[in-house]
Structure formats: C-alpha cells, structure tokens
Design a protein that fits this description.
10 helices, mainly alpha, 305 residues, three-stranded antiparallel beta sheet
C-alpha cells in the first residue's frame, strides 16, 4: 500500500511548485472546487486557448506569456522552447551539425522528422487519422498495398477514387484526445506503438481486456505547444490553471513544456484529492518534492506509459 499523500501547488510571481506532503487538508472537496472555479476568469481561459470539451490548453502561438513560436524550418511544427533559441530542439541540433549559414539552413525544407500532430487521411471525406509517412489511414493503406502496391499514394487516389471511411471514434486511452487509428485495438497510432512496446516488455496478451486495463493509466501523447489535461481530477486541473493565470497576471512567462511533469509527479506519488486552496500556501513539514514551472526545460516532453 502507498501512504496517503496530498499535493498542492505553491505559486508566486516567480515560480509554481507542486509540493507533496502527508494529507492534512480539512477543506471539503466541494468547497475547494467551487473556490478554484471562482478564481478562474473566463476571459483568461479564452485568451489562453482553453478547450473544456477536450480538456486541452492550447495557447495561440503568439501569446506573449504562454505561446510557443513555431520552428521556422519549412515543414516543422515543433515549438521553439526558449526565448534565446532560433529553432526547435531537433532542428537546432541539425543546424549545429550542418556547418551551414543560418540563411542557407533556413532554405532547406524539413525531411524525415516525425510530426507529432494528428492529421486526417487525405482521401476525400475520410474521417480517420493518417499515418505520418503515407498521409492515408490504415484502412486505405491496406487497400492500396493489397491492390495497387506499385502506385504512389497520390496516383492510387487519382486512379481509384476511393471512398472515405467513418471515424473509429476516440482513442480508448483515458487521457488521449486523438482518434483511434485501428478498429481492432481502438488505439491511436502513437498509443498503438506504445502498447506494442509495453507488450514486448511485459509479455501482456493482445486482448481487448488487456488493452483497456493498460489504457486507464497510459499517459497522453503530448505536443510541446499545448497541455492535455484529460484524465486528471478536476481539482488538479483547476489548481494548475489558476496557478498559470496568477503567473500571467504578474507578467511571468510559463513554459508549458514542463506542466506535464507536474501531472506525472502527481500520478507517480498516488496523490489523493486533498488539495490546499489559496493563492499562497505555507511550506509543509518534512521533505518535499518540487516541479518548477518557471524554468526553460530543454528536454523534450514525452508521456510515460
């Protein structure tokens, strides 16, 4: 058994910290949620790009305190994670290794780098997600490979005029906002890859029951310019949003690439729903773990499974 632990977020104008300590909160859960809801301003949520239906925070790229500019390399959609950087992390390494001038490097389109975003199949009226390499969904990929393997994707579409398919629905992973790529598993492409890796490590059976069990705790597929809150307790979501709002009110920039670390810290520590309210919280007795949101973290963020 894991010891009962509570968490709260300590925030000032300079930093936001997730603090873990023995649960001692006496604030009723409903009172806590109401207080946090009241603290959030609708105009802030609108400007910050909050989508309550998807539980997604996706600020505009140009937002001065929350936005992450897009990498200037043609074809790259990753974010520039530092105010002092010119490119995303991957393109910055490519630039340093290329020996080219900045102007020459900017003129070269990106090739071979995976795009973390989700795109629909390019077949007309198809509602299923496309594989990053082919541009078509798994069903259309199978049809082309079986019937016309010698044709390119675009030639196959032009000659056969395939019909689009209806969506499989959302990915079965509780925290995922993507669509399912395979009807047999109900998983999106990235979670399908993670499930295969999990099976190799653990020897899990490829059954519906095993997939659903794994999907309850699998982490979302993060992108660096947005934060996925789906699957978190409402109190945790509200605490983080209020903290980001407070920092923005003080003109402090928040790097969204580190917010998922707070989520993972809370999940790994088996946090309870006891959360302290108020803009400022006194320090806890005993050792505390911290995840700071005021730092420019250069490591790419990928969800743990």
């Amino acid at each position: 058994m894991y010891p009962t632990r509570s968490w709260h977020i300590r925030w000032t104008a300079d930093e936001v910290t997730v603090v873990f300590a023995p649960a001692r909160s006496s604030v009723p859960r409903d009172v806590t949620i109401v207080a946090l809801r009241d603290a959030l301003r609708p105009e802030f949520l609108g400007e910050a790009g909050w989508n309550p239906a998807q539980q997604l925070l996706a600020p505009p790229r140009a937002h001065p305190l929350l936005g992450m500019p897009e990498c200037p390399i043609r074809g790259c959609t990753a974010g520039v994670c530092s105010a002092n950087a010119t490119f995303c992390l991957v393109c910055d390494r490519r630039y340093r290794a290329s020996g080219l001038s900045l102007t020459d490097f900017l003129s070269i389109p990106l090739e071979g780098k995976p795009n973390r975003g989700e795109r629909l199949c390019i077949v007309a009226n198809c509602e299923r997600p496309a594989h990053v390499n082919s541009g078509i969904c798994s069903s259309h990929h199978t049809a082309r490979r079986t019937r016309s393997p010698d044709l390119s994707v675009h030639d196959w579409i032009a000659r056969t005029n395939p019909s689009g398919f209806r969506s499989w629905g959302p990915c079965v992973v509780a925290s995922c906002i993507r669509d399912a790529a395979h009807g047999s598993t109900g998983l999106c492409y990235p979670h399908g890859e993670r499930w295969a890796a999990h099976r190799r490590r653990s020897g899990a059976a490829n059954t519906t029951a095993a997939i659903l069990e794994w999907s309850r705790s699998a982490a979302p597929i993060q992108v660096d310019y947005a934060v996925i809150f789906k699957g978190l307790r409402e109190q945790m979501i509200l605490q983080i949003l209020v903290g980001i709002q407070y920092r923005s009110d003080n003109g402090t920039r928040t790097f969204l690439t580190v917010v998922p670390r707070c989520r993972r810290s809370c999940r790994r520590s088996r946090c309870t729903e006891h959360i302290r309210t108020g803009y400022r919280t006194e320090g806890s007795k005993g050792p505390a773990r911290h995840d700071r949101l005021d730092q420019d973290r250069s490591a790419p963020v990928t969800g743990d499974s």
